[in-house]
Amino acid sequence: MMRAVSATLVVGLIVTGCSSGEDTPSATSTDASNESQTGSSSSTQDSGGSDAPAKPTEIDSFTWGISPGVAHLDYAQAHTFSVNQTLANICESLYQMRPDLSNGPGLAESVDKPDTTTLIYHIRANVQFHDGSTLTADDVVASLKRQLDPEVASVWTGYLENVASIDATGPLEVTVKLSKPDPLFDEAMGSAAGVVESAKTLAEAGDKYGSPEVGVNCTGPYSLASYKTGDQIVLERFDGYWDKENVGYAKQVVFRFFDEPQALTNAAATGEIDGIYRLPLEGHKQLLDAKDAGSLDFGPSVNVVNVIASNPDGPMGDVRLRKALMYAVDRNALVAATYGERASVAKSPAPLTAWEAIVSPEQAQQYLDALDDYAYDVDKAKQLVAEAGAEGQTVHIATTPFNAAWPVFAQNLVTALNSIGLNAQLETLSRPKYLQLFADPDMRREYDLFATDYGAAFGDPLSVLAASRTGAGENYASWSNADYDKALDDALAADDATRPDLTAKVQQILNDQLPWMPLYNADLAVWTGKKITPAPLSDSFQWAPWANKIGGAPAS
Amino acid sequence: MNWKRFLLGRAAALVGMLFAVTFIVFSLLFLAPGDPAVFLLGGGTTVNRDAIETVRAAHGLDLPLWEQYFRWLGHALTGDLGYSYQTRESVTGAILGRLPASILLIAIAAVFTIVGGVLLGIVSVLLQGHRLSGIVNGLITFGAGVPAFVSATLLVSLFAVNLGWFPASGAGTGLLGMTYHALLPAAALSFGYIPTIARVSASAMMDLARSSHVDVAMSRGLSKGGILKRHVIRNALWPMVNISGVQLIILTMVTVYVETIFALPGLGKLLIDAVLRKDFPVVQGVILLFVCFFVLVNSVVDALRPVVEPTSRVENRRE
What we know:
The complex is a heterodimer. By secondary structure, chain A is α+β, with helices and mostly antiparallel strands. Helix content of chain A is about 25%, strand content about 20%. Chain A has 17 helices and 22 strands. In chain A, the strands form five sheets. An eight-stranded mixed β-sheet of chain A has the order 2-14-22-13-3-12-11-10, with helices on both faces. A six-stranded mixed β-sheet of chain A has the order 16-21-15-19-17-18. In chain A, a hairpin with a 2-residue loop joins β8 and β9. By secondary structure, chain B is mostly helical. In chain B, α14 packs across α15. At the A-B interface, α5 and α13 of A face α2, α3, α5, α7 and α13 of B.
């Protein structure tokens, strides 16, 4: 159910806190406003400049670096960090994600849930699109229905698979009927799954929607001024933005495209760009040292890097070998050698941040503590290989140089597998070819293992765990387990009070079966230059407007 | 030279080459592993077979190779190069958007390469027998061995990040701004190709320096500079022009390295990205442009021959 997060592309997952029925957004304007100017409370400040909230000043423009570049701005195919962080400032969703990944009111002021399969969204009045037209229920219906159009091939269909109907039931009211209870649909309305575009624009643009020549026409705090592929996107402040308290400080925001992490880092160090979300690992040291140029801050991330057992018919189809691999890899040492303190060993594909969006931090930690951590134990790994009678079997691993850490982890997987009696073969693929693994089940079966950087699309562990359901689009392991599917159904059908415990049971099965073998959860790294105030330190940057919260840094 | 015959011949060659190259490239892309429909569907996420088939049918990707090619060719002949699978923008628009940065980059790099190469060649000749000769030859050998991505990395680190003299990335705006942004990438691009022209130039000049007419000029008491200018460089122009044309074509083909390192929106990167993602329309569009450019460069070089090499005019008359 979760949108994929791939190696170079990432789909973030957003989680929303209003997962069920009664938790309706208030009718007041969203409070996801300036509350996180300096990042979340759990962030770590590595350099000066963002310890105290700074009141932004109005500025003409600032420049943001993104890597790789943006190919198009179609919300239905928005599944990369680059597209999402740009689009989040132009197009808005029914809900607006808060920095803590919960959903607040967005283009829907509130929602009624008269029963478990009916959602009635009350659309905000007097909201203007960038072309000056006014938002109506028809725009919402057209935008959501487009996600279901097979020719559009939306990456968000997983969240809409239980939609039975979407109708305008009033000028500013949209009713969605579900074929069965599915809290993930409503939660996804804070992500790109819930983006609202002008129905007229969609009809006129056709299959060129979101292209550099046609662009988009949404309601966000910034409108698209120019778009040159391979180079940059320029946004202009939208003075007709409905949320008058959150009109942007900068008149213009430029998103510049980079292909190489080093080029991105150089541009930051020289002040050619003012900020970066998710700075690649390669740039950490250079920018941590560049204190005169800005600050590099770290916060919690929704993404976990997992190794997928992609071929159920190969040796890694045997759960004993998957467990053996987990025991054979010294993940603590690897994380220390690559990210240092900026990452932690993951015990579940569902990150702590996703759990913290639905339960207390203490409860979230308890759920993760209950899982087997598969601590480094080569003897136990060898024993499992012997039990499986798999000595000497060949394991094909696909990898790509996604960032500086991946080759290290890939090589260590090879070493670990060889050390326990298996014969590991590593193949490095180009990024485009590697990305095909996520779309092509037949190609996945050519390899036994490959890695994915997968994030929660919203604040609910189920948004990640649902990916391993039998037949799910993002079930990259082609794994099938009846107990797991049953546990997942139980959790999805449960009420808010009992769902966390049931979700923990789902996670427990995954931890025992390991179709996805979690490796690590790296922090969100955000670079902010001296010229501007710090960017919100939250993965909500993928879905909710954030550029409007950045302004000129006050003179010190 | 019979210009009418020359131009007609070149035009015929261009048409034939365009047809052959585009068909070969199209075929190779078609046969290479990977499905463009996967990229059309966004890549990076799992999509179902129905969606892939829908997209394949919508874009004619389910047709046989020859039918896809001639379909593309039919549109291309009417000036419609199609739309990019990746960005959904017109191929013409995508190319025009990248063209300014590429033209500046290649033009400046060509000036650096040709002027630098010829000057270095002259210096090499003048220093023959001098103790500095070894240093110059060493520099030439070193330069020839440095690939563009290495020189680009070194130059950006020194002159952009550490000294701050030049921008580290981007294309800039306006002619002056774009030229300023292109200087460092052009220097990186030309670095490895200057030695080739220097060697060819020096070799041609050395051959001429040993010829009898130079001996005669020396015996008549002409200065060394005068001999070099009137009897050596003048007669060595053809090999220099010839190798410059070849180098210009090579420069055009390897811009992707510096475009990537300097984040320049150029045609090299556009082509490579399109090839990796099997974006047929963009690949074909850029290839068309490149082939036209290569034929143009070769034609200009050939047309210059009677001008810079008078003996060729005599040979033509004899024919």
